[in-house]
Amino acid sequence: MAPIAITPPVEGTETLSHLTEQGIAHAVQKSAPSQLKSASMTDNITSTPPSEPQSKVEPAIEATIAELDASKIQCTYTTAPRTVPEVGSAEMASQKVCSDHMIQAQWNSEQGWAAPTLQPYGPISLAPTASCLHYATECFEGMKLYRGYDGKLRLFRPNLNCNRMLMSTNRIALPAFPPKELLKLIVKLCATDGAKWLPKDRPGQFLYIRPTMIASDPALGVERPKEAMLFVILCCFAPMGNMNGGIKLLASQDDMCRAWPGGFGYAKVGANYGPSLVAQGEARKQGYHQILWLFGEDCTITEAGASNFFVVWRTKEGKLQLVTADLNEKIVLDGVTRRSILELARAKLTSTHGDLEAVEIVERKFNIFEIVEAAKEGRLVEAFAAGTAWFVAPISQIHFRGSDIEVPMVKGEIGAYAEVFRGWLQGIMWGSDGMESHEWGHVVDEA
Fold first, then answer.
1. Is 126 exposed, middle or buried (0-12, 13-18, 19+ CB in 10 A)?
2. What is its EC number (predicted)?
């Protein structure tokens, strides 16, 4: 069945355009009313005022069910510790090995959130009729716990991930929660398992953090779930690759669409990823690393795989620009790495920085034909993808409708701007290069 778009609001008229916003506000009022006044539930992952009118649903009464409360956590520690894989081993690269413990919290519509638990890592129990198995009522976040070169454990801007997860849960009818309580639970798990799984003699390593919420309601009806489960795990990943030499992208074709206005491309929900795997697999068989997702007849650029896409080019007038898709149509993810790159660029690159020329930072809708034209006219400077998984990955080639767009990399295997962004972010994440005390690095006190 084709998606039904939410009609954009028309000024001065009454429409049904805010059904989703209204539904979210009512759901938040029932599950976490403390969040109604703090921020718009459908806005971006900071408290920037929304660009569209928002529902004005105020809580009529105080909460009658329990909200998520990290202070009530109940801890049961493992009696069968797991073995930490060796760096570079196939076991570590399998992305299947998790740390000793996990966080779990149960919710139902009558009592609200039960006391969360820290418990031994292991399987979860679900009814075959569970909502998440049938209706994609599942969302998650992707984060990393870093072992810094200064010996400390760090998270990178974790408050943004927790805020975004709240937005994602709201979009798919899962219960709301105070993001700061989720952050406390994540920190508790990291503090418990971090010292063993990221020992101090392995600086520069990380664990992947996967906070997840699923609808566990066993009712098979197509309706808002009445039961849900939140869990957080730490997973071993292979060391972060720099993707030097560049990644090759295959532009999506007319029969492919990752996200659409009025849909859920801006939320980190499982339904965004499963449908992309067929095209991704075919792209890899043809020698490409990922899909460059385009949208509409004008081939608007959205994302590179599951990462945000950036391009540096010169306008026809000679102005140097750093361009990425805007968030207005809600068809790209408000990535934490994306947001950080834009903030760093505005702070450091609007004037000359060392050997780097100042750039104009532009967030707007743009399409593949503009890149084709810039490449033909010698105005294309570089391009890169940015996200938690790929980090900052230079792009060397884009294949579009039978032709290859060769993307320059002035540093040999990376562009100059991608290189400087990568360096700044690594300094914050790993506690190096004078970035040990940067406000974006959230230090975790080890248990």
1. middle
2. 2.6.1.42
Where do the H-state alpha helices sit in 153-244? 158-171, 179-197
Residue 397 sits at φ, ψ, to 5 deg, of -155, 145
Cα atoms found within 13 Å of the Cα of residue 20, Cβ hemisphere only = 22
Give the whole-angstrom CA distance, residue 189 versus residue 119: 10
- Minimal CA–CA distance to 212: which of 186, 240, 184? 186
Residues of the chain below pLDDT 70: 1-17, 37-63, 240-244
What pLDDT does 10 receive?
A: 30
pLDDT tens by residue, 44-70: 444 333 333 344 444 444 457 899 999
CB 70 within 8 A of CB 188: yes
Please report which helix (H) or strand (E) contains residue 427, including its range.
helix 416-430
Q: What H or E segment, with its residue span, contains residue 212?
A: strand 206-215
* pTM, full prediction: 0.90
Q: What is the pLDDT of residues 91-103, one digit of tens each?
A: 999 999 999 999 9
Domains of the chain in start order, with CATH, are 70-236 (3.30.470.10), 247-430 (3.20.10.10)
Which residues have C-beta within 8 Å of that of residue 179, sequence separation ≥ 6?
159, 162, 163, 165, 166
The size of the chain, in residues, is 447
Cβ burial 18-30 (10 Å sphere, 16+ → b, else e)? bebbebbbebbbe
